[in-house]
Design a protein that fits this description.
Chain A: Keywords: Cytoplasm, GTP-binding, Nucleotide-binding. The complex is a heterodimer of chains A (about 450) and B (about 300). Chain A is of the alpha/beta class. Helices cover about 35% and strands about 10% of the residues of chain A. Chain A has helices at about 1-5, 40-50, 80-90, 100-105, 140-150, 165-175, 235-250, 280-290, 305-325, 340-350, 390-400, 400-425, 435-440; strands spanning about 155-160, 200-205, 210-220, 265-270, 295-300, 355, 360-365, 370-375, 380. In chain A, the strands form two sheets. Chain A has a six-stranded mixed beta sheet with strand order 2-3-1-4-5-6, sandwiched between helices. In chain A, strands 7-8-9 form a three-stranded antiparallel beta sheet, with no helix packed on it. The chains are: A alpha/beta (about 450), B alpha/beta (about 300).
Chain lengths: ~450, ~300
Amino acid sequence: MEEDVASAFRPPASRLAGPSRIPGPLPRQDGLPGAPTQRSCLWVTLRQGAGGAPWHRPRAPAPVTPVAPCPRLMSGRGGAEVTPVEKMSGTGDPRTGPVENKNEAAMSELVPESRQKPVVPMKPVGINANLLGYIGIDTIIEQMRKKTMKTGFDFNIMVVGQSGLGKSTLVNTLFKSQVSRKSSGWNREEKIPKTVEIKAIGHVIEEGGVKMKLTVIDTPGFGDQINNENCWEPIEKYINEQYEKFLKEEVNIARKKRIPDTRVHCCLYFISPTGHSLRPLDLEFMKHLSKVVNIIPVIAKADTMTLEEKTEFKQRVRKELEVNGIEFYPQKEFDEDLEDKTENDKIRQESMPFAVVGSDKEYQVNGKRVLGRKTPWGIIEVENLTHCEFALLRDFVIRTHLQDLKEVTHNIHYETYRAKRLNDNGGLPPMTSETEENHESNL
Amino acid sequence: KISSSQFEQKPNHHDHEKQYVGFATLPNQVHRKSVKKGFDFTLMVAGESGLGKSTLVNSLFLTDLYKDRKLLNAEERINQTVEIVKHTVDIEEKGVKLKLTIVDTPGFGDAVNNTECWKPITDYIDQQFEQYFRDESGLNRKNIQDNRVHCCLYFISPFGHGLRPVDVEFMKALHEKVNIVPLIAKADCLIPSEIRKLKERIREEIDKFGIKVYQFPECDSDEDEEFKQQDRELKESAPFAVIGSNTVVEAKGQRVRGRLYPWGIVEGKHSAWKLAWGREGWEGQRWACTAETAAGNSLQHGLD
């Protein structure tokens, strides 16, 4: 897991041209600390759009100005070099600006900036050129790693789909443990619930010294009734409730240092492998929910389809999603830079939706023990890329984009909710009973 | 379809000691006449879209009834209602002619709100009974067209944990109007233990909800043992777990109908194909009789 933490700050190889490999935030044009990448630009714009509300904490001179999304442009500028050095000293300290404050508390882990991308000048000029010795700035990575290991982090994943599509099995396979209440065998005595229920189960998983508090949110009853109209409403309600909880905690005067994060970071939507196209219900759900949460569509029980059927089906599904304007994760508009864009484009246009097979049973294949399904005509290996795309999904959700999922949830979806709430409330943060009391006593 | 019986007095042997009348040839005569006349069979297929209904129909009858169909995408399906689509094909095998009508039900169970989505189907079945009833009461009864639905293959999704609410409601609405044969579709996604459990579960639920699915008639006691064995297997396998295929793949040097996966090939012998096909062949005649009984019952209800 180390590389995941480090990867948030990992400078892409192509950019390690200069003498110093400083993973630092982007310097800003107006010299203020902070790293307004495209993503936080969006966030900032929302805040501004809401009319300069009181939550706009006092800042030095001007309100935040969005910087051009392509930070590489900084390379030629002499002034750029100074700021990273300055900033670095600020990173470990009590926050220099409200941005970092909120982010830090919000993320419940030490992530100084919403998005740190290294800026390494192509031509070293100014102070950074020819460092006279080794400073040790790059040990920040190790420091962050240690801190993260101590605090651990939260991850909340929701699974949605008709019953029997293998949701629980897949989650268990993803996290290699029995984290999801599986309808063990077929002895389920529970009937299909009449309305959609929301069941959240939390587990603490540890790997390589890093603790993850994983919460799996199941949605039994979705799509199973005869009349499934508006069956996504309880789900949307739940997601918004989590945002509300977080918001209330945030605006609390005496708020916790580390706000417990119950917001849904990722929603796996299970598509039934009909081989034809998406169902009307699938479209309805994704249209409504892709605006409030990161949706990752997966094709369930993909062992139903042959290779050609799979490819055709995926193409059709992708096209339908596009035609209907459904932005699934990773959303195009949130690609921060060219590197992200190319990487995500490839995933979006070729791999997604992932056609997966889940299993919690092991079999012996070629001398190795693998997770799979034993059918009369062969063993389907879950982690074999020629059989299904489970490994791609796992790498995507856990090994490369885990942090990003959380960031997008926090910086985009949560912020959208927050802006709307504050707007509705006349620009004031919602008063909880506590804040009201404190308010009174302070007067 | 039995025309008025006449037994002919035909001495088979010029043997006056034997008191031989000769009406034992009656079954042969019936057979000959039926073969000349040909059979009508109307088969309905119902179930959610994407369960392999068309593929199975093509596999069963080795035809390509659905060659040029256009699949609707999800948006088009939002406003779709359940339709009834008929395809007719004449099949002949070893001199036996079969006029096969497949009644398809696109749109069933696909909408977000599927309340009463079976109504167009029950209406259709009732219409056919009504029409037959009128024809039967009419003057020209010689050339009655029997368009009544003789059998309905209902496709159950293999992805569920048993019957879904829409499955139960559909079967309850239709079990007294038509012979329902439930099938587990796309069974190649299930491993044998899963198929067993699913079948048990479905059988339990069918009992629980009082659904009267088609019961295969008992075979006569004087049938040979092999036939009896097959009949037993048939009954025990219900609901049938089926796999359909329109493609021919190469397996062990032979070309067979099957499905090619990266982990192996699914061939006919792994599925209930043979049984299902066999059923069609043997039971062809019997279907008609049972359908008449079912028809009679509904008409009775209608008249009351």
